[in-house]
Amino acid sequence: MTRRPEADPHPAGHPNESANDQPAPGWATPTSSSPPTIASAPGSYDQVVDKLRHQLRRNADPDALVTGHIAVLGPGTASERLMVQAKSRVDAAGVVLNFHQSYSPADTEADRRQYGTDPLLHLAEIGCLYDNVTWAHANHLTGEECDAVLRHGTIIAWAPAASMMWSHGGCLHGRHAELWRCVANVALGSDSPNWPTLSTCSDGLRWQC
User: Fold this and answer.
1) Backbone torsions φ then ψ of 202, nearest 5 degrees
2) What pLDDT, on the 0 to 100 scale, is given for residue 42?
3) Exposed, middle or buried by CB within 10 Å (0-12, 13-18, 19+), for 209?
4) Where are the alpha helices (DSSP H) in 22-131?
5) What SS3 class is residue 155?
6) How does pLDDT run across 135-161, given as a tens digit for each residue?
7) pTM for this prediction
8) How many other CB atoms are there within 10 angstroms of residue 49's CB atom?
9) What confidence tens digit (pLDDT) does each residue in 74-106 have?
10) Helices and strands counted in the chain (H then E)
11) Phi, psi of 153 (to 5 degrees)
12) Which among 17, 19, 15, 11 is positioned nearest to 38, based on CA atoms?
């Protein structure tokens, strides 16, 4: 019998929300240099926060084979207050917060510029670095960030196939093996629906070795 957690499709809240809780000017109007938008995505902070709780209804049944947790997209899409709110909700519900973190050199450096410090150190400062948090990827970590992972017990779901597909350097520069040897909680993941086959799992294990 297999049990699995489920979350709503990664709700996102842009990191530069304006005072009226709407996305910052320019985010909703794509240009050649900005990312495309999805018409059905939540348009305000309140809508995103409301979406965080939908799958938690599954947890009312203690014998449910599919349970609920909370997930946000991560890199460049989540405001600080959204992350804090999501963490507060997982603490209250006794579930896990899942998000992408430090996937590519570009998004890692963008976070570092925004926060003025290593991304994981900033997450620790705002209370989002604990053993009920699971990151997908974590390909590009500094030594101080690795220490923070070990200190707080944060879980890493490494998806080597997804990193190799886009040449993000996770297998060359990732510190997953180093963290695992230090008894960090590092697991293999697939990241997206086109990677969940048995072949992928075995390939991932081989790549990790």
Assistant:
1) -70, -40
2) 58
3) exposed
4) 45-52, 80-93, 105-115, 119-125
5) strand
6) 888 899 999 999 999 999 999 988 877
7) 0.73
8) 18
9) 766 778 888 899 999 999 999 999 888 888 888
10) 9, 7
11) 75, 20
12) 11
Cross-strand bridge partners of residue 157:
136, 187
Contact assessment for residue 98 and residue 136, using Cβ atoms and an 8 Å cutoff: yes
Q: Which two tokens stand for residue 39?
A: 């018409």
**Helix or strand holding residue 207 (H, E):** helix 198-208
- As a whole number of angstroms, the distance between CA 43 and CA 38 comes to 10
Place of tokens 């970590």: 141
Write the single-letter amino acid at 26: G
Fill in the amino acid letter for 112: R
Q: CA-CA distance, 157 to 147, in Å (whole number)?
A: 17
Q: What value, to the nearest 5°, has the Cα angle with vertex 68 and ends 126 and 15?
A: 35
Using 50, 70 and 90 to split pLDDT, how confident is the model at 63? Answer: confident
* Stated length of the chain: 209
Going by C-alpha positions, the residue among 54, 50, 31 that lies closest to residue 42 is 50
- The answer to whether residues 114 and 15 touch, using CB atoms and an 8 Å cutoff, is yes
- Helix/strand/coil for 156: strand
User: Helices 80-93 & 45-52, crossing angle to 10 degrees?
Assistant: 20
